[in-house]
């Protein structure tokens, strides 16, 4: 019954486990789960607590872990239980519902933000009788298990759609036609060095894109290259590819591709380079690519520009269909998350 519900502060319903002295090291082969300030759970050979517990980070980003069994937690992790009149998974679901609010409002600090435990204890929660809590938890657990499975299936379908396109793309270049030639990349493309651009010439609202190693970094009213090209990361995110048909400025951590556009198609070259996984050529502490290593790669390429354009048309068509499918899957994942939030909201406003 709704009139049996009470509003309480979290401080009235939580039991705090003793503070841990364990640092966030752990290992991958320990016996027990080890909850730390990062989201990923580690392993450890000793345990600190048993039974049902909730684990919360005290610094960084907020998230919630629940575990039933022997486990351990680090010094920067807060482990809590609940009083006998509160189902711990009822509290867990409440914290999941309010995780964004807690992360934004209750984590404070000039540099690394920390959970303000007194503010956390002052949060209010609607507490129905224990039997009602257990009914709600049973519904939520069942619904969320189904949502998790649906998300996993959708994410798998999303991954499969990407792999399908990649597989077809690879097959195009590993099964050359009769009118193809084998050449080294250096025979038909050149990698030119990018150039530094003073920050005073950068403006996010300016006309032309400014490319770094892993994509557009800013914009500028100045340009260094006035023809379509492919930008390849040279230092840092070495081997990453970006294509542009606009005037642009490639920074000094990049190469930009030049070629004879009367013999070769820009998009064909981009598709070809994307199959070569140039990131694997990166070497050094700050990964970098030597263009001579790129030039030496042997590839197959159609002899005629028309054949290249024909292949690009087919790849573009499949790419559009694949991206449309990916968009549908991503929207379904977002819808499932929205459904989860809606159900949680109903649970803690007495509507479930």
Concise overview:
The protein has 352 residues and is of the alpha+beta class. It is 36% helix and 23% strand.
What does this structure look like?
The chain is α+β, with helices and mostly antiparallel strands. It has three domains: 2-128, DNA methylase specificity domains (Adenine-n6-DNA-methyltransferase TaqI, Chain A, domain 2); 129-179 and 304-352, Orthogonal Bundle (Helix Hairpins); 184-295, Alpha-Beta Complex (Adenine-n6-DNA-methyltransferase TaqI, Chain A, domain 2), CATH 3.90.220.20. It has helices at residues 10-13, 88-97, 99-105, 117-121, 130-174, 266-274, 291-295, 305-347, and strands spanning 6-9, 14-16, 32-35, 42-44, 52-57, 65-68, 72-73, 77-82, 107-108, 114-115, 124-127, 180-184, 190-193, 208-212, 215-220, 229-233, 241-244, 249-250, 254-258, 298-302. The chain has a four-stranded antiparallel beta sheet. Strands 13-19-16-17 form a four-stranded antiparallel beta sheet, with helices on one face. Helix 5 (130-174) runs antiparallel to helix 8. The termini are close together. The relative contact order is 0.11. The model has no long low-confidence stretch (mean pLDDT 94).
List keywords for this structure.
352 residues; alpha+beta; Adenine-n6-DNA-methyltransferase TaqI, Chain A, domain 2; Helix Hairpins; 3 domains; four-stranded antiparallel sheet; 8 helices; 36% helix; 23% strand
User: Strand tally, please?
Assistant: 20
Largest sheet: 4 strands, antiparallel
Kindly estimate the percentage of residues that lie in beta strands according to DSSP: 15-25%
Query: In whole angstroms, how far apart are the ends?
Result: 12 Å
Helix content: 25-40%
CATH class bucket of the largest domain:
Alpha Beta
Annotated CATH architecture of the largest domain: Alpha-Beta Complex
Q: What coarse outline follows from CA principal-axis ratios?
A: elongated
Class computed from helices, strands and strand pairing: alpha+beta
Q: What do we call the CATH topology of the largest domain?
A: Adenine-n6-DNA-methyltransferase TaqI, Chain A, domain 2
Spatial strand arrangement across the major sheet: 2-8-5-6
Question: Which homologous superfamily in CATH is the superfamily of the largest domain?
Answer: DNA methylase specificity domains
Radius of gyration: 28 Å
Instruction: Provide the residue-averaged pLDDT.
Output: 94
**Segments where pLDDT lies below 50 for 5+ residues?**
none
